[in-house]
Backbone:
């Protein structure tokens, strides 16, 4: 039997911390840390390296800086769980390395949907707000691509087409008969060419680019 997924929570509301921790424990996850500030998020990520850390954005300190540091370490995925549903805040969280953006007015099951998506290597955005946020990403990608006109290889176009169908790296590798390592190489190349920060931006920016060619 596989080990339980480790999780940590950082929020400056004690009741929410206790409640969400208990909720995840009942679902079989192992809670390894709780905190109430950006500094606590950094410390928990460094000391325990949980698979996932849920971070609020209204806590004391620099939450965006903490997200960036944790994401850069590469050991822990960051899920932003916040009451702020503004597009600018969501885009900034994703830019700094968050793998998911979940708004606190979402139903609890959406938290677990976010967990499953992130563990698959995907980006998750609360469904009620995804339209506005994705539109913001698309508008920005369109503006940036209008200035660049990056040229994609045939293989990169194939990867993008599958990415637009929400295929995982493993599924892309199987479809194109290449290794997952090669898929990751193409993904890094696409992120560099399109100046994208994550898979969502790659898909949106490349979609616009394909329509331009």
Residues:
């Amino acid at each position: 039997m596989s080990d339980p997924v480790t999780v940590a929570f950082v929020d400056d509301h004690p009741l929410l911390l206790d409640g969400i921790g208990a909720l995840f424990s009942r679902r079989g996850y192992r809670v390894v840390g709780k905190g109430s500030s950006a500094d606590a998020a950094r410390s928990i990520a460094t000391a325990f390296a949980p698979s996932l850390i849920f971070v609020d954005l209204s806590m004391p300190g620099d939450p965006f800086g903490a997200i960036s540091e944790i994401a850069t370490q590469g050991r822990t995925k960051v899920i932003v769980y916040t009451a702020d549903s503004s597009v600018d805040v969501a885009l900034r969280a994703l830019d700094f390395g968050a793998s998911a953006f979940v708004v606190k007015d979402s139903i609890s099951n959406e938290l677990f949907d976010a967990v499953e998506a992130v563990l698959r290597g995907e980006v998750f955005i609360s469904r009620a707000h995804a339209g506005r946020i994705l539109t913001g990403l698309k508008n920005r990608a369109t503006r940036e691509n209008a200035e660049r006109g990056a040229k994609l290889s045939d293989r990169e176009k194939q990867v993008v087409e599958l990415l637009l169908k929400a295929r995982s790296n493993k599924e892309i590798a199987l479809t194109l008969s290449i290794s997952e390592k090669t898929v990751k190489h193409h993904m890094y190349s696409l992120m560099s060419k399109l100046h994208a920060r994550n898979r969502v931006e790659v898909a949106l920016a490349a979609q616009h680019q394909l329509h331009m060619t």
The chain is about 60% helix and 15% strand. The chain has two domains: 6-125, 137-212.
